[in-house]
Amino acid sequence: MERPGTAYTIEINPKIPKRLSRLEELANDLWYSWDRQTRALFARLDPALWDAVGQSPKILLKRVDERRLVEAAEDPEYLYSYNRVLSVYETEHVDASHGGGTPLLRPDDMVAYFCFEFGFHESLPIYSGGLGILAGDHCKAASDMQLPFVGVGLLYRQGYFSQTIDAEGYQHAVHVNAEFDDLPVLPVMREDGGELRIHVELPGRSVAVKVWRVRVGHVRLYLLDTDLEENAERDRNITHRLYGGDKDTRIMQEIVLGIGGARALAALGIKPTIWHMNEGHAAFLVLERMRRLMRERGLDSASALEAAAANTVFTTHTAVPAGHDRFAAETVAGYFEQYCRELHLDEETLLSLGRTPGGHDFNMTALAVRGSRFQNGVSRIHGGVSADMLKDLWPQIPPVENPVSYVTNGVHVPTFLAPDWTEIFDRFLGYGWTQRVNDPACVARINEIPDHILWSRHQFLKSQMLLLVRDRIASQHNRNRGSEAHLDRILRLADPANPDVLTIGFGRRFATYKRATLLFEDLDWLRQIVSDAKRPVVFIFAGKAHPADEPGRELIRQVAKVARTAEFEGKVLLVEGYDLRLSRRLVAGVDVWLNNPIYPLEASGTSGMKAGINGVINLSVLDGWWGEGYRGDNGWAIKPASDALEQYQRDSEEARTLYELLQDQVIPLYYNRGNIGYSREWVKLAKRSIASILMQFNASRMAGDYVSKFYVPASQQGRLYRERGYDTAKTVAQWKARVRGAWAGVKVRRLDAPKKRISYGEGMRIEIGVALNGLAPEDVTAELLLSPADGANGEGTRHALASAGPAGESGEHRFVLDLTPEPCGRIDYRIRVYPCHSLLAHPFELGLMAWA
Prior knowledge:
27 strands
């Protein structure tokens, strides 16, 4: 019955007893997102409320019954756990001497890591998927390693959407405003007691930006917020929603992240020596750093770009062209008109930083590449794909040699390894094994875990997963007004009390290239696979499509349609509300993790790593990380079909491989149980999966790779370019301008008569003449590339030609090489010349090359 009058709401917060006062401190440090003992402290106060508030410590402390807090403060067992957590917390995160960071970085180094989204835990919903989770894992690993590291992002009022799916399979996006007081964030305060604000200029106005601080163990994350009363409504909405709004909203978000982020760090007195852009969303920070260098150091724009780029790292995460942000040149010119006036910079110079050859739009990835000297993809395959995608930015360099490298992603083991495995690993690998996870001898002890213990623990985790899946599906089914009898039919195989059914999981973003529906390519064949009553199979699908991605939403409808058919009902389950909690349960509880993207469009795919470390076995296309992780004995691989085929043919070929693997290997191996109740061979495969993936694909290895491959060189290059009032940056900028101006006139020709045949051990002299067009001989390197004609024996070798003075009266300069080739048989060799300077970060960073 509706009651008259206005309903007012008030929240009555309990007082935390003095003996438990530091619970508030723990609730404001995302260390709890990977320390389970800390989370257990909060869960024990009120388990039902803990789940109801989304496992948010801060909200729990606001809503828990005060009597429960008083009881806990008098409970010796709870106090013991509380004090034990505090002891570990102080040892790990207050005592700066513990861990020691890395000796590779200097004491004054600081990494600033910019990203559009960060995924630490469901209690801070400012992430959508893989990019954010990866950024969160990067920060957690940096904390574990005690790296000098700060993160910079945006604090979204709504974050990403929550998902519901109706009876017809249509996805509905539910957006909820967050109360920042309920999040583990605190405003940054000035010395005078006021909240820190910085300002960012947009056309005709200045936008105020509030700075929030998030504690992530040793790491600090600074989040920017424009939802302030002093801003106009359209500017308050800039940080309203992650990946929401139109192109204008997106460019304003990226201006706030890049320019506002750099200004926030300056206002905080933080002086990064290494700048890391995780995706191109933050690339406008390059322009802000140029602005500061031009205003404060008097540099011209070219020198400022060299100085800013010298210590900047750029990581790209997408192999799909649509994943690279582009804005109309006119739009960018409008937003940066004041910038250009202030810096006496012509509009075309600014726009050229974001243009690709032949393009008109402003490409944020192009700006990120030109504004950095260290670039990488996120797996070995993706590194090659990215080098090819970005080849136009180094137009004369073969893609295989351009500066794009790679660091394969890893996952934060303490976050994604189920607690039940942690206990077992402590017993068999030894206490402190997480610090030795990269040691083969340590990880090899996985084999010492008795088979029956590994199997029973996985079955328990599977039961826990099925409980959550059943709860989500029941909620979904009841909301869609389904009957109880029908729900029982749907869930008959997903039985936590009988977790012996082979369960295969697919949990990821519903984007077309990830091919969620490849499994349904031949429904007749699939029907045969799942119809054996003695060997049942359940497929669990979960994931979101972007609300504006209609093809992705259609994939969800296709899965729902198959799941509703009589022959697949209960054997194909679609679970709504994909989030970190469901993800953690799935990757620890299913038996097989399925991933079948279109090769080579899966940049990395970290969900398979999370599954693998939990003893779940991967069944995946050899793309992304699995191209490195698959060893023939630790899972199953779907070899990509020839890219010469039409896409429908590739789908058909790879679906056939998937069906064959399921029918001939996966299902028989799982159900080959004999008299002991489980398959010994399956358990051996699970152990190999854990051991191989745990050691190679963890976030500490990933962070260590970034340190050695990029952070240390970037720090060194940045210091070099700052020397003597940025004289080095000026020198390099001037040299590059001179080389670019002359290069069109640089020509290479052969002076000697090429020999067709020589005897083994016989030498040959190579002589070339180079028209340098005003350049000096020391401005270039002349090089011979030697390789077998059939390419069968590797990539070959490089041999430098020596400067040998003028080549007669032709005006050319002569370069020579005396070479005695080692291999017999036919060999190919080519001769090229490219600019060289000892101060370059990469020998081919100019993208210029001339061939004989």
